[in-house]
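ZP: hey, is the adenosine-5'-triphosphate complex queued? I don't see it on the tracker
AM: it wasn't, my bad. submitting now with these inputs:
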Amino acid sequence: METTTPLLKVDQVGIQFGGLKAVSGVNAELFQGELVGLIGPNGAGKTTFFNLLTGVYVPTEGQILLNGEKLNKLPPFKITRKGISRTFQNIRLFSELSVIDNVKVAYHSLAKHTAISSIFRLPGHFSGEQVMDEKAIEFLKIFNLDGFKDEKAKNLPYGQQRRLEIARALAANPRLLLLDEPAAGMNPHETKELMNLIAFIRERFSLTVLLIEHDMPLVMGVCDRIYVLDHGQLIAQGTPEEIRNNPKVIEAYLGEEVS
Ligand SMILES: Nc1ncnc2c1ncn2[C@@H]1O[C@H](COP(=O)(O)OP(=O)(O)OP(=O)(O)O)[C@@H](O)[C@H]1O
């Protein structure tokens, strides 16, 4: 699975807010096709790390490379175009838009038709629109949401909203997909289905996935490797088995939950 150049290389990355080092000196490498977990206690810096990878925050130390290209200081939309998409801990859909429009918003920048042809409703607009509809429906089908395509996003049950957020992130055609607690608030059945789905889309779209998740059996069951943050620092990395038995991890966070 691994090639010599990592898809993502994080080199000594950190950020300080006032006196607080929320993330400090983190090194990580993700290789094409890997599904990697990012765990750690509350406040460990996991979401901040995602914010650094996606340009929401600019690192105060270190650098981030995607396929060897520096991402530092690029704004979030440029990083999305370079191939990193994400979901959020708290769902951020366009709640008043339809399910299909939520996907099309993400897909828009990849579509062939231009803003001018949209405004004047030129023939190119309609063919472009149709292609976008078809593509969006393809994504919705994968997530079993095509039957709700005209429903407002806010009217979907919670678990489906979470799946729609992933569909939207995928529609931006990422190489690296960052999922921030995608199973939060889901029941065990929904969670199991979601994990199967994540494994499926990783294969289907040749994706690399980095997953923040608090549900340990879930992380251990689905991830190839796991990174562990504590107080902003990387305290361990390894296979689920190695992490489960790592004394530092047990001490920092997991305790009996994992042993
Ligand atoms: N913009 C900010 N300004 C100041 N402090 C911040 C900012 N963003 C995050 N922090 C702080 O950085 C630390 C790490 O927070 P972060 O949300 O990344 O942790 P987390 O591991 O994602 O936690 P959780 O599992 O609870 O979501 C916390 O102490 C948080 O208060």
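AM: back. The first strand starts at residue 8 and ends at 17.
ZP: great, adding it to the tracker
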